[in-house]
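S.,

As promised, the NDP run. Input:
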Amino acid sequence: MAFKNMADIAHIIDGKAFALSLRETITDQVPRFVEAAGRKPGLAVVLVGDDPASQVYVGSKGKATIAAGMNSFEHRLAADTSQHTLIELIKRLNNDDAVDGILVQLPLPKTLNEQEIIAHIDPDKDVDGLHIINAGRLVSGQKAMVPCTPLGCQILLKDYLGDLSGLNAVVLGRSILVGKPMAQLLLNENCTVTMAHSRTKDLATVVRSADIVVAAVGRPQMIKGDWLKEGAVVIDVGINRLAPTDSAPKGKLVGDVDTDGAMPHVKAITPVPGGVGPMTIACLLRNTLVAAHRRNNMDDPIL
Ligand code: NDP
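Predicted complex:
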């Protein structure tokens, strides 16, 4: 699209490049842990069933873990695995000293009770930050395992903006995985936080009050450019696939924000793809290394 002049073009926050540099920093810190502990940090990933997207995610998490110099333990179970069998596996992983992080790939098949499974993960190995103990630790300002996606958003925001204190932040979406921990992280950074969701009235006006917008709704390009305050910083978490076209036979990936419409208004924005997504995997590695240090009574690594 055409812009009036260069000053109108927003800064693109390059999550891909940032994630790469975070992964390099993590990789550099692994040998220090190996020297102190006499073993590599280890991440166990559990996949139940054969959902193609989940298989891809699990595969790339395993590769990234090994590339960082850590051990990856993959447990691929059949779709008809029982609740009891899965809980027994979690208990074994909890007691396995070589395992610092446990991630159960979600969603689980409908026959399984996700909440009960997550409740069985040792909170200190809960690198996805989904255990209620970690949610409680985050709210009460204690050292927690923080869900990877909102943690990645927080890191990008702090890198771009520095001190977030006093800024108005609007988080769209209130899921346990993204929206709620995101709002809490921003509150911990002394932002004034508004949480918006499907029952929020006059969403455009709410969004227009924000210096920081984090969109985690799962609705393609829902947030329009003229909803955004001039100079806002926008983190687009959404990953939505549009219907296939001749030029994009697999369907184009877009975020929750109408990026082209937003660009003339905002100061900075994350692209989709290449924004928040790569940060999620980098933060999984970060959480695994942090969990390994804490389990070994070492100070947190400087990342
Ligand atoms: P959920 O479906 O769990 O939550 C969506 C949230 O959006 C809900 O709180 C819902 O409100 C709210 N919402 C839905 N429709 C509207 C609307 N019209 N107006 C305002 N709010 C609305 O999704 P997730 O949090 O798991 O994920 C959100 C998006 O982020 C998805 O696109 C997902 O693919 C992506 N994602 C990306 C990741 C990454 O690594 N980049 C990782 C995780 C997720 P209510 O609660 O009222 O129903």
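Residues 15-37 form the longest helix (23 residues). The chain is about 40% helix and 15% strand.

- D.
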